Amino acid sequence: MTRVAMFISGGGSNMVALLDDMARGSHAGMPCVVLANNATAAGLAKAAGRGVATIVVDHRPFAGDRVAFETAITQALAPFAPDLICLAGFMRVLTGGFINQWTGRMINIHPSLLPKYKGLHTHARALEAGDSMHGCTVHEVTAALDDGPILGQAQVPVLPDDTADTLSRRVLEQEHRLYPAVLRRFVTGDRTPLILTS
């Protein structure tokens, strides 16, 4: 079984989708720990309620020293011996030094059809551009922000009366479908991009 660590910063809805999918059985992945960068992340209680170990490595005491923060993460992870990291709404930018230790073993979900709209405010940017399709992407994590090989995408049509909020909600529904489906394939070594339509 592949031991999966999940990193969160907030409510952890994608983490919950991953945990519930792994709990259904016939899955080559097994959750070993959920890590948050703040103790108030609501996802911690959701993980604990599902019997998954949780740890907190608060970024604030490190005063912008990302290397020291990441060293603390590495030390906290060590007892759980993860094989793979899933970033599931982890709102901290990781350095290349940390990422390179996990090359081919760290994946992320991003709310756009990459390579479009890396970074923040993706839904508003898609609306401003007049896009007819939007969606989400699961990709391998590399040192470049929201880059790396694409493992899967789910497309969502943009409706005439959409706002950033309504579009965000529909994209999030697809994130909850896409991320577990990609993880199931990834842990078996399948890197073929998966395309879902809503």
Largest sheet geometry: 8 strands, mixed
What is the fourth-level CATH superfamily of the largest domain?
A: Formyl transferase, N-terminal domain
Strand order, main sheet: write it out.
3-2-1-4-5-6-7-8
Radius of gyration over alpha carbons? 16 Å
Separation, N- and C-terminal Cα atoms: 31 Å
**Structural class assignment:** alpha/beta
Pathway: Purine metabolism; IMP biosynthesis via de novo pathway; N(2)-formyl-N(1)-(5-phospho-D-ribosyl)glycinamide from N(1)-(5-phospho-D-ribosyl)glycinamide (10-formyl THF route): step 1/1
Active site: 110
Protein name: Phosphoribosylglycinamide formyltransferase
Enzyme class: transferase
Verbal overview:
The two termini are 31 Å apart. The protein is of the alpha/beta class. The protein is globular, with a radius of gyration of 16 Å. The chain contains 6 helices and 8 strands. Helix 1 runs parallel beside helix 6 (164-186). N(1)-(5-phospho-beta-D-ribosyl)glycinamide binds at residues 12-14.
Structural features:
198 residues; alpha/beta; Rossmann fold; 8-stranded mixed β-sheet
Q: How is the topology of this model organized?
A:
Blueprint: E1 2-8, H1 13-23, E2 29-36, H2 43-49, E3 54-56, H3 66-77, E4 84-87, H4 96-101, E5 106-110, H5 122-128, E6 133-140, E7 150-157, H6 164-186, E8 194-197
Parallel strand pairs: 1-2, 1-4, 2-3, 4-5, 7-8
Antiparallel strand pairs: 5-6, 6-7
Summarize the structure.
Its EC number is 2.1.2.2. The protein is built from 6 helices and 8 strands. It is of the alpha/beta class and 198 residues long.
